[in-house]
Amino acid sequence: MVKYGLRLMICWLAGMSLSAQPRIAISYPTDEAKVVFGENIRGTLAGSSGKAHVHILVKPLRDPNYYVQQPPSDAASGKWETVFYCGNKEGGGIGERFRVFAIVTADELRERQALGALPADAVKSGSVQAITVTRVK
Questions:
Q1: Nearest of 107, 125, 131, 130 to residue 22 by alpha carbon
Q2: Tell me: the pLDDT tens digits for 60-91?
Q3: pLDDT tens string 23-60
Q4: Helix residue ranges, H only, the chain
Q5: pTM for this structure?
Q6: What confidence score (pLDDT) does residue 4 get?
Q7: Cα torsion for 50, 108, 86, 132, to the nearest 10°?
Q8: How are strands ordered across the β-sheet holding 66-68?
Q9: How confident is the model at residue 18 (pLDDT cuts 50, 70, 90)?
């Protein structure tokens, strides 16, 4: 009991919560995968509250912006899935590398929104996983 009370006091003094941070993982595709224009992506989410939102962002390595993709299926079950897009359907982006991010935020983001940086709450909580992919067709 004394150890728990001490831990609680230390967390309070540091401004931290005892609750676990959400953990997000991408299970498909894998890092360094070859992908097509519209590629499926899926993964898991653990330790989230009902206020957490899963988002997929794509960042072309040649571009400073992060692009919000269509929202994943309901992640409340612990699993999520959606499609992400690299380049355009006319062939723009073939042969290019992209970073694909799965993040958890408190706020909802709009599909097709361009962000200059990853949302601060996702970065601060560590609720981010990224892979690098190359578009092949």
A1: 125
A2: 999 999 999 999 987 778 899 999 999 999 99
A3: 999 999 999 999 999 999 999 999 877 778 999 999 99
A4: 2-14, 120-125
A5: 0.82
A6: 47
A7: -50
A8: 33-35, 128-135, 97-105, 53-60, 66-68, 114-115
A9: very low
Who's near 107: CB < 8 A, 6+ residues apart?
53, 119, 121
Distances from the Cα of 93 to the Cα of 38, 60, 71, 133, angstroms: 12, 8, 22, 11
3-state helix, strand, coil in the chain (%, to 5): 15, 40, 45
- CB–CB of 47/125 below 8 Å? no
**29 cis-preceded (ω within 30 degrees of 0):** yes
